[in-house]
Amino acid sequence: MEKTETDGAQWLMLTVVGSDRPGIVARLTEALFHAGCNLGEASMARLGGNFTMMLMVEGTDSAALERLLRPVTDDLGLRLHVDVIQGILHHHEEPNVQVTVHGADRPGIVAQVTGALAKAGFNILDLNSDVGGTRERPFYVMIIDGFVDGGAAVAEQALAPLSTNGIEVRITTLDTLIG
């Protein structure tokens, strides 16, 4: 078993994607629990009628994890992918800025916004987006939490040129309290 963390634990990133339905998380985590696996950080979301999950798992190797979960994922009609990762827990970079973007949906909004933020040194920690409105008049909304030295002022300066492209941007300073 390859060791990837300083405490000697091997962490795996379990990725699951498929049609959303009740019980996916319950079935997968029950199988992991019965196999003695420990769970780390997780991100789960429903996107366009599909469920997607990324879950850090400790306690087995990648081949054993796939053998353990394959019957469950096959039964639920899910696609499964497992990677060995460096699992670093308890060292969270906290977001200090939230960027909210909205405007008429069109190709390139995400690329323009994230490109401008990247040039400013903005590290995206969480990004969520949705398309509302109607098929004839779609409306795009994106919310990004991230960290940048210099805070909101740096993000505002980076994104200022985009306001002339029909994109509305709101920058908020975040004060995250953990513990």
Would you summarize the structure shown here?
The protein is an alpha+beta fold and 179 residues long. It contains 4 helices and 8 strands; from the N terminus they run βαββαββαββαβ.
List the total number of helices: 4
Main sheet: strands, sense, barrel = 4 strands, antiparallel
Residue runs with pLDDT of under 50 for 5 or more positions: 1-6
Strand order of the largest sheet: 2-3-1-4
Shape: globular
Radius of gyration: 20 Å
CATH class of the largest domain: Alpha Beta
| Strand content range | 35-45%
- Overall average residue pLDDT: 90
Sequence of secondary-structure elements:
EHEEHEEHEEHE
Distance between the termini: 33 Å
